[in-house]
TrEMBL record:
This is Sarcosine oxidase subunit gamma. It comes from the Bacteria. It comes from Bordetella genomosp. 8. Pfam families: SoxG.
Amino acid sequence: MVPAWPRRSATPCSTTKRGCAKMLSEQRAAWPTPRHESPLTGIGHLLAEHGSPNGEFEVNGRPLVGFCIFRASPDEPALHAGVGSVIGISLPLQPNTYTQGADIRAIWLGPDEWMLASAVWSARDMESRLRHALGPGHYSVVDVTSGYTSVTLSGRKAPLVLARGCPLDLSARAFPMGECAQSVCFKAPVIVCAGGSGIYELIIRRSFAEYLMLMLLDAYKPIQQANLRY
């Protein structure tokens, strides 16, 4: 004879007491709203103290930039047209280039991968607009803002400072405005975008941001007094 399964109790029970659950709910309601904080907050005083004569080297964090990774086949013009209708610019198809719009930048990372960066749109907004415009299809769009941050280097000595830790040829001839490259800077992985006139945007992992800024500030010291040009 097969024994019958034990009958389920008519009285539901829980290991969490009602009073404790209510207290936890009240505590969660009182928690402050999460905010997006710069990974450079810990060295903000050093960045504020940093100054160079005639603005020959400036470094500025951009903590409020939103980042999305978009992936799709480069052979689907309708899909690319849909993206362009949302962000206002076309996705770059030439390797190691980016396209710049009024408030968004599209960076080529691979034959079927782009990074969308904007200081005006939130990544959540970008992702929502793209999904709404494109509908179902063979593509992916992911908010990666929590993993990246952006820093801008500028000034006539910015290429010299960056070259101390980055193996790229940063001359205007080899790395003109509108080009980008995935490389390393003081062993930290970076995406470097050339902005022209000695301006470079570095897109870096948040966990490397403070370390990399300290290395760049230190790299500037020996060339601060040197009359050098890249």
